[in-house]
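Service request form, structural biology core

Requester: graduate student, group of Dr. S.
Request type: structure prediction, single chain
Budget code: on file
Notes: please return the result as structure tokens.

Sequence provided:
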Amino acid sequence: MADKNFEAQLFKAADKLRKNIDAAEYKHVVLGLIFLKYISDSFEELHEKLLAAQGSYAGADAEDKDEYKAENVFRVPENARRSFLHSKGKNPEIGKYIDQAMEEIEKKNPTLKGILPKVYSKQNLDPVALGWLIDLIGDTAIGTEASKSKDILGRVYEYFLGEFANAEGKKGGQFYTPKSIVKLLVEMIEPYHGRVYDPACGSGGMFVMSEKFIQEHQWRIDDIVIYGQESNQTTYRLCRMNLAIRGIDGSLISRNNEGTLLKDLHPDMRADFVIANPPFNQSERGQEILQWDVRWQFGTPPSGNANFAWMQHMIYHLSPKGVMGLVLSNGSLSSQSSGEGEIRQRIVDADLVDCIVALPKQLFYNTGIPACLRFISRKRSGNWDRKREGEVLFIDASEMGHLVDRVHREFTDEDLKKITDTYHERRKTDGKYQDQTGFCKSAKKDEILKHNYVLTPGRYVGITEAEDDGIPFEEKMKELTKTLAEQMAKEQEMNENIKEQLKKIGFSL
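Core staff response, request fulfilled:
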């Protein structure tokens, strides 16, 4: 599949085989096979090099598990390799062979214990379709050195995650944040070193994009350590697989049934970068037991809406020079009920709010609620950047992006560059930032006070001025008056015709 849209072709072909299986269940079937194919490709390629024992592999032992660990390659037993499963592809018990392969891989690789899907022997899976799916995925090299250099796997996995999220609708948003939103968050806060934390990590997209950011800027991936938490068991497994296939250590990703707010599994961790898309307007059951929690430094959040609970949880976990970016509903910018206005005011007064970005509608799979990005920084008093104490940057990107289908919108690369360049130019000591009517405004504290601490960007950036087309105002009014008169004359004529027709059939007016 050399075509540049091969991932779309692969998904379309794979989706045809799901028949009556829900996308929520089928995604584990397909993504599990992609994972299996990737680690099998990686293992077999390294295994052959070790067997040949040439060059840098001279004297290597192909049976030594440390040889594979040294190159971040998972050990794959014989009955889990592509060649073996391909030979069983037409066997009616192919599902059983795949489940056994997953179990054997977990035994050989303790870091994967309890992570891999074992759903292939279920009765609703057609063994013939499953065999075809193995052949389909098997025809794409995704774990070899050549394919890794082209990020074939990343393209396939991300595309499939997005398409399954789309197919699941609102439920899909629980595990997937659209790529352009993740990219914007990462490009804004630049998580290139230290601890990176996502308290609602879903399928791990924030971590994957952080890794890409580091690679693109030629920094060292070893310079970051990732922490995360996820309550949903199946989403947690997706996250761990998503990280594993990229060689990212996911051992500090934690899971519990209660959720991050009710049971924080990293209570003492302080992160250099916090990045998250927590559930919008979540009503957190049991939150009343946290009334005096140490995380609520700016006020106790209401139990009926967890927006400010998430925000304070993340601020609590920021290091003394930490930076964070999170997605929240627009309501969090202006709400006054249940003490939310007071909490927002205290966070602004603490001089933590660095930037607010208003987002366009239709960006997310799980909600139509208008959303914003909020950037919090503890390094606004210099620290290599320009001092930005007592001011907040407002960016209105609500009219940006383009529709990729009837219901979903995405930012273009040009959109992302415009937003991130604006943010970074304002941060630089010698930056060329300027306010732009209708798009951005760096507002001082007194202006925010005038707006009663409402942080909606539209209040600050103003309305974009219409571009002068060179036509004098008097001429425009004359033409408009003429057009209106013509329309009124047409309506009058149509009304007279209707009256005549009604009279003919006996109606009197």
